[in-house]
Design goal:
Elements: H1 8-12, H2 14-29, H3 35-48, H4 52-64, H5 69-90, H6 92-99, H7 105-109
């Protein structure tokens, strides 16, 4: 977060917005993680939450902190894979229930009556 520009939420709700802004600044400046690692994490989170403007800002900040193009791309790929696995796991019960009734080539070769065998 850019310290020189006051975000809209701090201007409109200063009693909560300004402390939140200070918290965000502290998270990016202090702690045991180096600046580059923090910026890569911020890119990943912004990407998962699908915030294009924030991804762009964090990529610029990460590059200023010394992150390479390859490190940024790898961080984005890892976040994409993790997000996809999380979505599959979150919806596992619904998917298994609904897909268990749809025969596929592998199921037709198995013994009938155990339609969840592929998913266990």
């Amino acid at each position: 977060m850019n310290e020189s520009k006051t975000p809209w939420f701090a201007l409109n709700t200063p009693e909560l917005g300004r402390p939140f802004q200070e918290f965000c600044i502290a998270c990016s400046e202090k702690g045991v993680l180096d600046s580059k690692t923090k910026q890569l994490l911020m890119i990943v989170v912004a990407s998962v939450f699908q915030s294009n403007g924030e991804v762009k800002r964090q990529i610029e900040s990460a590059m200023q902190a010394g992150a390479s193009r390859e490190e940024i791309i790898e961080a984005l790929l890892i976040s994409t894979a993790t997000a996809a696995r999380s979505q599959l796991e979150m919806h596992k019960d619904v998917l298994l229930k609904q897909l268990a009734f749809v025969p596929n080539d592998r199921e037709s070769e198995k013994t009938k009556g155990n339609s969840n065998a592929d998913f266990e």
